[in-house]
C-alpha cells in the first residue's frame, strides 16, 4: 500500500494560470523564467498586484511549483498573499492574471487593487 504525501501550498495556482505561464515561457524560449507575483503600494484601494517574469529568486522568496511552472513571491508580498489563489482569465475585459485573496478587506472593481 502506498501512501501519498500532500503538502498544501500557501498560495494556490489554478491550471489556467499554470498553462498560461508555460505558454509564455515557451514563447520567450527561456525555461529559466518564473512568474513573480508582488504587491506594491497604489491603485484605487491602497495596494495593487503586480506580475513580471524573472529568471532568479532569492533564498527568502517563496517558490510555488506546479506542473512545470514556477511562481515566485517575495517575503513582503507573501504576508498579503498567504492563502490566495492565482488564476488566469480570458473574458470581455481582456486576458489577465487574477488574484482571489482572502486577506483583502475590499477589492476595487477591476480586481487589480485591494485594501487590508
TrEMBL record:
One of its GO terms (cellular component) is cytosol. InterPro entries: ATAP, ATAP_core_dom, ErpA_proteobact, FeS_cluster_insertion_CS, HesB-like_dom_sf. It holds the Pfam family Fe-S_biosyn. Residues 11-111 form the Core domain. SUPFAM superfamilies: HesB-like domain (SSF89360). This is Iron-sulfur cluster insertion protein ErpA. GO terms for molecular function: 2 iron, 2 sulfur cluster binding; 4 iron, 4 sulfur cluster binding; iron ion binding. Binds 1 iron-sulfur cluster per subunit. Homodimer. PANTHER family: IRON-SULFUR CLUSTER ASSEMBLY 2 HOMOLOG, MITOCHONDRIAL. Keywords: Iron, Iron-sulfur, Metal-binding. Required for insertion of 4Fe-4S clusters for at least IspG.
Amino acid at each position: 500500500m502506498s501512501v501519498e504525501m500532500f503538502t498544501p501550498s500557501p498560495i494556490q495556482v489554478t491550471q489556467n494560470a499554470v498553462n498560461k505561464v508555460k505558454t509564455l515561457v515557451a514563447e520567450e524560449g527561456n525555461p529559466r523564467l518564473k512568474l513573480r507575483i508582488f504587491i506594491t503600494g497604489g491603485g484605487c484601494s491602497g495596494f495593487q498586484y503586480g506580475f513580471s517574469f524573472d529568471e532568479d529568486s532569492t533564498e527568502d522568496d517563496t517558490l510555488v511549483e506546479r506542473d512545470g511552472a514556477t511562481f515566485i513571491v517575495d517575503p513582503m508580498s507573501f504576508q498579503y498573499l498567504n492563502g490566495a489563489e492565482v488564476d488566469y482569465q480570458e473574458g470581455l475585459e481582456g486576458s489577465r492574471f487574477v488574484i482571489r485573496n482572502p486577506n483583502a478587506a475590499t477589492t476595487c472593481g477591476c480586481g487589480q487593487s485591494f485594501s487590508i
